Amino acid sequence: MKGQASPPTFKVYTQRDLDRIPQLAALPEAMRFEMKVVSTVLPFRVNQYVIDELIDWRQVPADPIFQLTFPQRGMLDPEHYERIAALLRAGAEKDEIAAAADAVRHALNPHPADQMEMNMPRDEEGHRLDGIQHKYRETVLFFPSQGQTCHAYCTFCFRWAQFVGDKELRMASSEAAVLHNYLRTHPEVTDVLFTGGDPMVMKTAHLQSYIEPLLAPEFEHIRSIRIGTKALSFWPHRFVSAEDAEALVALLERVVEAGKQVALMAHYNHWKELDTEVAQAAIHRLRSTGAVIRAQGPLVAHINDDPAVWARMWQKQVELGIVPYYMFVERDTGARHYFEVPLVRAWEIYREAMQQVSGLARTARGPSMSASPGKVEIQGVTEVAGEKVIALRFIQGRNPDWVQRPFFARYDDQATWLNHLKPAFGEEKWFWEDEYAAIRQARLAAARA
Ligand code: SF4
């Protein structure tokens, strides 16, 4: 950046560096021990930029970015916490700790929404195509193997299982050819989403090897290239001063010039992530390529369960030329009991936030659950024929015919996920239930074959 002697280098801290973070030294020893216990089970990674520029250490532990990146005791249930803490206190062997951590992880629903079994396609010979997920007809998700990490980790991460070094739990592919072959034979696919982890941790050259071939005429049917990223928050220097930032900008420009949509699906949780000079410079640079930045992120307790935070974040995004896109519901995995917000409360927060912003900021959908049958939005609480109900709709569905059909659940102010809800009006089942069961059975049978 202009005015700086040399660009800042990326410096990362993981569990074994907890004692080396100067700001943590000022916290009680007991708190650091809690962090060690939790990060034995769940991934932890933070970088100097987040520590120095995003966290207000005077507000710790309540600071939202501290909660977003540093492990908190409440993230493990007391029994799990004690099991690991006892081993650490006793100085147990590495292997014993690792086995205990593994057992706890497997109890935390590492792959919500049946990702492993239901969304992974196969080739003509029936081989599972690792690294690809194809859940909705028009969109393919691709997990490039070099992009299966992030510049820092979110404590609530729904893909945490990717980061704990357990191969069985990972989904990734290093094979650009696998992706390209799959897309070649699926003309119904119009959108490819590169996801992770964070594909923006990859070198531009890697990203290019996946993306550039899609500009060939045989991929005419691919209209949009989306890249899911939190680099705009956790390491905006990636787009401004990294040695291959220029090459990245040039790549995105070529894709846009070729007539395809480039959408950066930027993960934001709090307006503080938008406030630094470098974050704004990165947004500006990306927008100058013709890429569109769409903002999405989950509503999470301890971080952003406040309408004022969302209103300020959406308004700020619009000012910076970003399109507010989704408010998600925290997923049913990992430390969800610490972060989850009841669906009814989530809707109230969404509604109150919407009421505070101008029309341009009202483009965010939500609150939306990415459940196995589809993306289900909570539309509101109302009364129909004397019964208090929650109105829902599919934004995306395993069957496209379900999309936009309203349906109703019995009012329940404690439910935090779709499977906690019951159909309203004394109905036994959801309108989509039988069909979903059939789709699920067929997929699971294919996965086992
Ligand atoms: S940026 Fe996304 S994938 Fe990375 S840690 Fe956060 S939620 Fe997980």
Automatic annotation (TrEMBL):
Signal peptide: none annotated. Belongs to the radical SAM superfamily. KamA family. The keyword ATP-binding does not apply. It comes from Pseudothauera lacus. It comes from the Bacteria. Its cofactor is pyridoxal 5'-phosphate; [4Fe-4S] cluster. This is Lysine 2,3-aminomutase. Keywords: 4Fe-4S, Iron, Iron-sulfur, Metal-binding, Pyridoxal phosphate, S-adenosyl-L-methionine. GO terms for molecular function: 4 iron, 4 sulfur cluster binding; catalytic activity; metal ion binding.
